[in-house]
Amino acid sequence: QLSSNKTDFLYSEVIAPEIDKSIEKGITIAHFDLRHALKQGDKIEIKKNNLTQLYRFFTAENLLNKEIFTDSNKLNKAFYDELLYLMGLEEIQ
């Protein structure tokens, strides 16, 4: 039975085994040294060719693992709701 009213049960019986499985499989990470992106000199400047790579790395799509390209067949929910409202219609689930 996987139920209890104690948080230590949740950690030891549910969360810890999943963490162990993830560690055994290996964790994919991305890392870089910002010093390699800098120009040598007195002023701190980023090399132009590295700027695009840094920008792409720090986008919300990359950091939060979001979709970069949206499906053109996918409706914007807010737009869809407003369109129904303007047409005097409502969606019935």
Topology:
Blueprint: H1 7-25, H2 48-57, H3 60-63, H4 77-86
Protein name: DUF7149 domain-containing protein
InterPro entries: DUF7149 (IPR055573)
Organism: Staphylococcus pseudintermedius
Task: Describe this protein's structure.
- The chain has about 90 residues and is an all-alpha fold.
- The chain has one domain.
- The chain contains four helices and no strands.
- The radius of gyration is 24 Å and the shape is flat.
- The model has no long low-confidence stretch (mean pLDDT about 80).
Please tell me how large the radius of gyration is.
24 Å
Task: Name the poorly predicted regions.
Answer: none
Euclidean distance between termini CA atoms: 36 Å
Number of domains: 1
Number of strands: 0
Overall geometry? flat
| Number of helices, counting only DSSP H or I runs of 4 residues or more | 4
Helical fraction: 40-55%
Largest sheet report? none
Order of helices and strands: HHHH
Give the rounded overall mean pLDDT.
79
Percent of sequence in beta strands: under 5%
Q: What structural class do you assign from the helix and strand content?
A: mainly alpha
Task: Give me some keywords for this one.
93 residues; mainly alpha; 4 helices
Short description:
With 93 residues, the chain is mainly α. The chain is built from four helices and no strands. It has helices at 7-25, 48-57, 60-63, 77-86.
